[in-house]
Amino acid sequence: MDRTITDKWYKMHDKDGFLYARKLINDEGLLCGGSSGSALAGAIKAIKDFNFGKGQRCVVILPDSIRNYMSRFVNDDWMIDKGFLELPTKLTTQWYVSVHAPHLIKL
Q1: Among residues 59, 97, 100, 107, which is most buried (max CB within 10 A)?
Q2: Where are the domains of the chain?
Q3: How far apart are CA 57 and CA 50, in angstroms?
Q4: In Å, how far from its chain's centre is CA 79?
């Protein structure tokens, strides 16, 4: 890898990666993992830093799938336990879904 052609490096945190991955799953139907969420979070940060204008495009490679994460960040209880998601303080019209699929996880 030629590091001299890289303009800027971004370090992303797990929370951002998990939240953006959940957004990709919910909004776009893309069954991607936390690394994909981190890639999107980094791309959004870069778009803001480099002042992308109307009509400019940014390609984001989503490097992983949800296969190994079914009992982790897609589970609201796990996200709350780890401090990545806050428990709602009041009921709204929004539904929260927890996924538990032990038969899909190979140990």
Answers
A1: 100
A2: 7-104
A3: 12
A4: 12
How high is the pLDDT of residue 1? 83
CB 16 within 8 A of CB 38: yes
Strand partners, 65: 32
* Model pLDDT, residue 92: 53
Q: What's the CATH number of domain 7-104, 3.40.50.1100, 1.10.510.10, 3.40.50.2300, 3.90.1150.10?
A: 3.40.50.1100
> What token pair was written down for 61?
């490679």
Block means of pLDDT (10 residues each) for the chain, 107 residues, are 88 95 94 95 93 90 89 89 81 50 48
| Residue type for position 19 | L
Distances 93 to 23, 79, 90 between C-alpha atoms, Å: 18, 20, 10
Please tell me the predicted confidence (pLDDT) of residue 89.
Answer: 65
